[in-house]
Amino acid sequence: MITTPPTLETERLILRGFEPGDFQAVADMWADEDVVRFIGFSRTPQDAWFASIRARGMWPVLGYGYWMVTERETGAFIGEAGFADFKRGMTPDLSVHPEAGWAFVKSAWGKGYATEAVSAAHNWLDTKLPGTSHCIMNPEHVASRRVAEKIGYSFLTDSLYGDTPVNVMQRET
After folding, report:
1. Which end of the chain is more exposed for a tag (fewer CB within 10 A), N or C?
2. What is the pTM of this model?
3. Would you tell me the crossing angle of helices 23-31 and 45-62 to the nearest 10 degrees?
């Protein structure tokens, strides 16, 4: 079982585990209305802290979790990407496979960082836990859907997360 997040490196990015020094940048990202527009909720600083700790804590329990994504050149935090089991209680049941997710600061948009980071995370997943993974997204979130499709996700079904319509996408390796 993998108990700590492995560090992944790409040409432009480093994906690593959450560190306390990341907190303010994470809290700022999750408070940005543009960032959370299609996610459906912002996070208070406390919620951002708890989510970051939870993401790091998934590793020893599930063998996967989230990475903090930083620019290799500057070390600046630009987002989060990874896998979880959120026990969403929705149909279809996503908790039987890793659920991919990602969010990036506005300054990272349009640079291909999301595709680069999410691809690196999936390359890691493909070697450690090959099989099915899912992601969900707001049907209007075109940019996120493009990222998902570039790394092999395809539309599975429409669903509801609570009262919110979502697209469920699936990827097989």
Report:
1. N
2. 0.95
3. 110
- Burial letters for 13-36: b for 16+ Cβ neighbours within 10 Å, e otherwise? bbbbbbeeebbebbbebbeeeebe
To which residue do tokens 């620019």 refer? 71
Distance of CA 109 to the CA centre of its chain: 15
Query: Under a CB-based contact definition with an 8 Å cutoff, are residues 27 and 48 in contact?
Result: yes
Question: What tokens were used for 52?
Answer: 């970051």
Report residue 22 as tokens: 């990341």
Give the pair of three-digit tokens for residue 17.
């585990």
Q: Residue with structure tokens 């408070």?
A: 31
Q: Which of these, 119, 114, 113, lies nearest to 153 by C-alpha position?
A: 119
Q: Count CB neighbours of 161 within 10 A.
A: 16
pLDDT in tens, 93-129: 999 999 999 999 999 999 999 999 999 999 999 999 9
Closest alpha carbon to 98 in 53, 69, 62, 55: 62
Match 């020094």 to its residue by tokens: 21
**pLDDT exceeds cutoff 80 at 11:** yes
